[in-house]
């Protein structure tokens, strides 16, 4: 298995990130950000975090997350994109991210939104311990305030400590 690590995204990574995001293999799975949105996440604005995933010291993907502790909603994984899929790189990167944030004070969960039809991603998340999460109205309001509500055809999955 390749050695996987996360490092903070730098401005000189932006072309790699947007190229991967806009690649035809990824467009149907993730939203498309303009450069300014990536710049804001790289700068940490609004509690966002932007990470490059490296495999054997080469860029292999990226991860964007939101710190939602101010809303008592843990961390939200907005986007996880891997260049060469089905090699375990994304699974290992998410495992490392989860371990890092769940060890932080005030974080009891990590969550994400997945499309109903994306069974491959659902399987990976379930393997890591994520479960489908249907919050109460009050919980949903907290989670939505920290990040975003699921769109039609999507649902939340959550990993708890």
**Beta fraction of the residues?**
25-35%
| Secondary-structure class | alpha+beta
Radius of gyration: 15 Å
Name the helicity range: 25-40%
Detail the poorly predicted runs: none
Q: Helix tally?
A: 5
Strand line-up across the major sheet: 1-2-3-4-5-7-6
Instruction: Say how many strands there are.
Output: 7
Amino- and carboxy-terminal Cα gap:
26 Å
Shape field: globular
Question: If you average the pLDDT, what whole number results?
Answer: 94
Task: Describe the largest sheet.
Answer: 7 strands, mixed
Order of helix and strand elements from N to C terminus: EHHEEEHEHEHE
How would you concisely characterize the structure shown here?
By secondary structure, this protein is an alpha+beta fold.
Q: Could you characterize what this model shows?
A:
By secondary structure, the chain is an alpha+beta fold. It has helices at 14-21, 35-42, 89-102, 119-127, 137-146, and strands at 4-8, 48-55, 58-67, 75-82, 109-115, 131-133, 154-160. Strands 1-2-3-4-5-7-6 form a seven-stranded mixed sheet, with helices on both faces. The two termini are 26 Å apart. The mean pLDDT is 94.
List the helices and strands and how they pair.
Blueprint: E1 4-8, H1 14-21, H2 35-42, E2 48-55, E3 58-67, E4 75-82, H3 89-102, E5 109-115, H4 119-127, E6 131-133, H5 137-146, E7 154-160
Parallel strand pairs: 4-5
Antiparallel strand pairs: 1-2, 2-3, 3-4, 5-7, 6-7
């Amino acid at each position: 298995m390749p050695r996987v690590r996360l490092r903070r995204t730098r401005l000189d990574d932006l072309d790699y990130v947007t190229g991967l995001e806009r690649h035809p293999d990824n467009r149907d799975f993730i939203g498309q950000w303009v450069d300014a949105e990536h710049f804001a996440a790289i700068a940490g604005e609004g509690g966002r975090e932007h990470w490059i995933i490296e495999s054997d010291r080469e860029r292999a993907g990226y991860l964007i997350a939101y710190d939602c502790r101010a809303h008592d909603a843990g961390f939200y994984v907005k986007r996880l994109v891997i260049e060469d899929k089905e090699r375990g790189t994304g699974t290992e990167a998410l495992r490392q991210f989860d371990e890092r944030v769940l060890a932080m004070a005030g974080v009891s969960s990590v969550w994400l939104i997945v499309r109903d039809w994306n069974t491959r991603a659902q399987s990976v998340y379930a393997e890591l311990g994520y479960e489908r999460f249907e919050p109460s109205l009050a919980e949903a309001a907290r989670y939505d305030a920290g990040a975003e509500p699921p769109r039609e055809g999507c649902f939340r999955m959550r990993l708890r400590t």
